[in-house]
Amino acid sequence: MSATSFGVIGAGTIGRALAAHAAKAGHHVLISNSRRPETLTDVAGALGPTVKAVMVAETAEADLVVLAVPFVAVPFVAVPGVGAAVGDWAGRTIVDVTNQFATASYEGRADIGELSGSEWVARHLPGAYVVKAFNAMAGPYVAADPRHAEGRQVVFHADDDAALIETLRVRRGLRRRPGRRRPALAARRIPEPAPRPKAGLGNLMRDQPERNPMMTSPANPQQTVEEVVASFLQRLAKQDADGIGELFADQIDWNVPGSKELPWTGPRSRREHVAEYFRTMWPWFVPGQSTADLEKMVISGDDAVLLADFTHTVAKNGKRLHTPVALHLTITNGQIVRMHLYEDTLAVHEATKD
Q1: 272-310: b or e for each residue (b if 16 or more CB lie within 10 Å)?
Q2: φ, ψ for residue 329 (rounded to 5)?
Q3: Which of 189, 210, 237 is the last residue of a domain?
Q4: pTM across the whole model
């Protein structure tokens, strides 16, 4: 079998196990996580000489890509122009190993309506061929040699026709026998691991309704907190000022600390002020020379906090500006009602001076 490039987005137990098998089978392996490639240098070295740590966008260029991130992180992998994200998924073959947990710690079940988990994933990766596989196997079973005294491991999968040939070709290289194939709609019938029970909370939580961060809002049942944040980031990457404004409620709590020399900064209170903010700020920086590396995201109830690093080139003097950023969004009934941005305001002020 000729060498194939094999991408793994997500460096958890299953992601590392599949990367190791692919390397042993002679594939060139690209592995990435939500942070920078240097955080995976030791992992890549331990997996083998053909394994390279890269950004997510480069991982997605592989012939076959394994999506091994928490289910709730899928929308953020799909955000173009934000850190390690991919802008165009058309024609890519994706092996989806996610399970429909509501949190990154594998608790609760995400409410996505009538869709199967892979249908929901496919909606976030438009144009990709999505195959469901490996999700019903615990990490140690994936990592182990699939051929042993008891026989050979079987991997069940659900997919659409266009992804079948490439997936089975690579899977044979991983020495696993394919099980029964079903369409992506049937992915809901491939067993998923049971959610982890909450430990140590006793009777305190027993009679309390749990706030599921993937649960849809009663006022807008199609928009989860994660999806609103993903839409915000997608429109930000496209510099769609009006589109960003549409995500906000009529009355908002908005604050970007700054100074009078930075006319876009300060508090704002209405939806129409949002597009004005971006149209005022963007001309201060050279188009195409701004980056936002998303380091971490925490979602609790209606609140989302994003930690990132922003880099810009100031238009009037050519200076490079780098600042760490914390962004706090609150989403109620599918609309953003609060946006507070915290950054190195002194560094912004100094960089934008003549």
Answers
A1: eebbebbeebeebbeeeebebbbeebebeebebebebbb
A2: -115, 140
A3: 189
A4: 0.56
* Residue range of the domain that includes 22: 5-189
C-alpha dist (Å) from residue 213 to 88, 111, 160, 225, 302:
27, 9, 30, 7, 8
pLDDT at position 104, please?
64
Q: Are residues 139 and 247 in the same domain?
A: no
Which burial class, exposed, middle or buried, applies to 32 when counting CB atoms under 10 A from its CB (0-12, 13-18, 19+)?
buried
Could you tell me the two tokens for 150? 């008891």
CA 58 vs. chain centroid, Å, equals 15
The secondary element (H helix, E strand) that includes residue 226 is: helix 225-237
pLDDT tens-digit readout, 343-353: 998 899 999 98
Residue 214 is assigned to a structural domain of this protein: no
Residues 182 and 230 in one domain: no
Question: Is residue 245 in a domain?
Answer: yes
Residues facing residue 254 across a β-bridge: 268, 339
